[in-house]
Design brief:
Spore Coat Polysaccharide Biosynthesis Protein SpsA, Chain A, 8-stranded mixed sheet, 19 strands, single chain, 2 domains, alpha/beta, 403 residues
Length: 403
């Protein structure tokens, strides 16, 4: 039996400003606000990016959120170009489903961006049930007594909680079935609250699977605090191994104007020469990242004998190294780098370099240290023949069975 091709559709086109939990986040939609130092949406995307049953991720966003989404999805390989959502959630889901038409998927898991704690086990349960059912809904039993109330606030009855469930996402569907159901629902006179309701309206039987209590939906500021607490609890139970990597690189000066260090243009009466753009600092950091996960070096991934890398932007090398760390399940914790040269002076540009490196690696600037030193006019750097850089990085990797 052939394995079914499954995609995730992440709905991230809402505003969600009720969730603002600090001055810095007040103007940001909740999916881009910081959760444990990273955009909330990045946590959500990562859950599907790292799941073996998911082959592609289609995200639906607002048109003016493109830059925020770019930061949140940077380095992920399964993410497809985002599409723009509509006025209602149904419009956004329909846009995402249409975008998946050309990707020949069998099933789609539709998930709220605001549920960043979705577990691999829950995704697996939904995927497993899709083998035999066209629609799958994760649910939780209701343990409280449930009352019906009229408009004035008076209780009108007690509902049988045994037959009631709380719906969660991701909700899984055979792709063509839910696409057809959404197309029919588009002609309806009122919006439906979730995709399972769309399937119900189309007469599609829906199988339920056990949901996850930790799979909370972040809506209000208090939800951020709870999500951070839950993430911290999850982290406590992951057996992390701390790894370090060391990188070193050298580039010679050549006639020209200006050098690029740490992704920042610095005025100088000469330039650095090399097969690529010769950003000696980013090269050292990239090599340190490769070293931390025992994954070769820049030369093995980007051979100087390959003409396609001639003059290549050094940020490409650093981004690839960061992607390799993330693909290994790792997290970059800290970078400390030293630039060795007589000229140009690095001090006036230090903060800009730290900020740029942090931006490239989705880190806080406080996790990036940049220093500069000379060799007291000794050696090739002392003679002004080039610049050297060294870097050491700290990476956390999840412990795996059998090492």
């Amino acid at each position: 039996m052939c394995k079914r091709k499954r995609a995730a559709l992440i709905v991230a086109a809402g505003r969600g400003t009720r969730a603002a939990h600090g001055d810095a986040s007040a103007a940001l939609p909740k999916q881009y606000q910081a959760l444990c130092g990273r955009p909330l949406l990045r946590h959500t995307l990562e859950a599907f990016e790292t799941h073996p049953d998911i082959v592609a991720i289609q995200t639906v966003i607002r048109p003016d959120d493109s830059d925020l989404y770019g930061v949140s999805s940077k380095g992920f390989r399964k993410t497809l170009p985002p599409v723009h959502g509509g006025a209602e959630r149904q419009d956004s889901v329909r846009a995402g489903l249409e975008a998946l038409m050309s990707h020949d998927v069998d099933d789609v898991l539709i998930h709220d961006a605001a549920r960043p704690l979705v577990s691999a086990d829950l995704i697996s349960r939904v995927c497993a049930a899709l083998t035999d059912h066209k629609a799958v809904l994760p649910v939780l039993a209701i343990t409280d007594t449930v009352k019906s109330v009229d408009e004035s606030g008076l209780v009108t009855g007690t509902l049988k909680r045994e037959a009631l469930r709380r719906a969660q996402t991701p909700q899984g569907f055979h792709y063509q079935a839910i696409r057809d159901a959404h197309a029919r629902a588009a002609a309806g006179l009122f919006p439906l609250t979730d995709d399972a309701a769309v399937a119900e309206a189309a007469g599609i039987p829906i199988m339920t699977v056990e949901g996850d209590m930790q799979n909370i939906k972040v809506t209000m500021p208090a939800d951020f605090k709870e999500a951070e607490r839950l993430l911290a609890d999850v982290e406590k139970h992951i057996p992390w191994r701390v790894r370090t990597g060391l990188g070193f690189d050298v580039h010679a000066f050549a006639p020209g104007q200006g050098v690029i260090l740490g992704g920042v243009a610095i005025p100088h009466n000469r330039r650095l020469t090399g097969h690529s753009a010769a950003d000696v600092l980013l090269h050292a950091i990239a090599d340190a990242l490769f070293g931390a996960i025992a994954d070769g070096d820049i030369g093995s991934h980007f051979p100087p004998s390959d003409p396609q890398w001639k003059g290549a932007d050094s940020t490409v090398f650093l981004a690839f190294a960061a992607e390799r760390v993330e693909a290994a399940g790792g997290r970059i914790e800290h970078i400390d780098a030293t630039v060795i040269c007589e000229m140009p002076k690095i001090g006036p540009h230090r903060d800009a370099i730290r900020t740029r490196i942090a931006e490239l690696l989705n880190l806080n600037a406080g996790s990036v240290g940049v220093k500069a030193t000379t060799t007291e006019r000794l050696g090739f750097t002392g003679r002004g023949e080039g610049i050297a850089a060294q870097a050491i990085v700290t990476v956390k990797l999840p412990e795996k069975p059998n090492g």
